Amino acid sequence: MSVQHQPQRTCVGCRRKADQNQLMRWVAAARDGGYAVLADPHRRMSGRGAWMHPTPECAALAVKRRAFARAFRVPVDSSTFDPAVLAAGASPTGIDADTTVQPESGSEI
């Protein structure tokens, strides 16, 4: 039986590479003249994504290094981020992250 290849991504916190299915995807969304960081658990939201292990350690490193602003290439205020909230996969700004972009062909489902 063959092992299916998983795409590799780099965690913005610890900078280690891991399979995509082991990391949580985050996106930047325009809100009130700035950008909010939103969790993308279904990996369907549009925009540039940042990947991070769902652990408090990686979340703390990402906040400390200002990794989200660097990954998204837009200014993001990470001072309001709680590493425990980030590790749990919740949006740090409290904005509903269930808004998704529907796939065009349906083949992504």
Automatic annotation (TrEMBL):
It holds the Pfam family YlxR. Residues 9-80 form the YlxR domain. It comes from the Bacteria. This is YlxR domain-containing protein.
